[in-house]
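queue> holo job accepted (calcium ion)
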Amino acid sequence: MNRMILLSLALGFAACASTEEKKETTTAATTSGDKSVQPVPSQASHCDTGGKHVIELDMNRDQKADVWKVYHASMENGAKVEVLECKEVDLNFDGKKDIWVFYDDQGNIKEEQFDLDFDGKIDMWTYRQLGKIIRQELDVNYDGKTDIWKYYEGEKLARIERSSNRNGKVDVWEYYAGGKLDRIGYDTTGAGVVDRWDKAPEDAAPAAPGAETTPASNPGTPAAKPATPALNQPTGEANKPVEAAPAPAAGTPKKKTK
Ligand SMILES: [Ca+2]
Ligand SMILES: [Ca+2]
Ligand SMILES: [Ca+2]
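queue> job finished
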């Protein structure tokens, strides 16, 4: 709903801000390797302001700060420069911060955290390397446990892992090729490994003559799979920010591509 609007605003804002901030840090040292893209516990990783220079901004002019920028001092060619390392935003001006952005020494965003429902708990994490997205994690039902992990290669979606039971344990693996869904693996037994695969319809083996009367052409796939009824319609996922092609319904018997 308006959560999405706020999020779009936030992302737009972050994008603008990052271009402008990049200029501030162009003279910063460019030595660090930025390999430290690690999953961070949701509540632990807010800006470290200790001994840092913090600039507060009041975007809506209500005399209360709603953007905080944290800088650390660095030396560049013998000159002291200030490098932006973290930014916090109170997006809805309720006094509670909702967005945290972390920067590498080159001024690229390396991590973003969003509290999408404004309850004080983070629900979306985006990780970047040299500014390019490599992973996004989502807590779609706001219970504090991650439910969806999206992995990117060359900024293209490569894999989505889902916890269809919303228990933090992955049981669905969607693989993408060229940004398109290629195959889906399911853990139907809780063993933690794939025990059933579905191919995306486009890449399924060409239908044999007379195949229209034999629905399940994949011998390893039972025509009906009642154990996983709603994998592709997870509740509460309506406001996911970016999604690739919708996954085909798992276990749908007669999927004709032509
Ligand atoms: Ca807020
Ligand atoms: Ca939240
Ligand atoms: Ca969750």
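queue> Residues 9-44, 210-258 have pLDDT under 50 and may be disordered.
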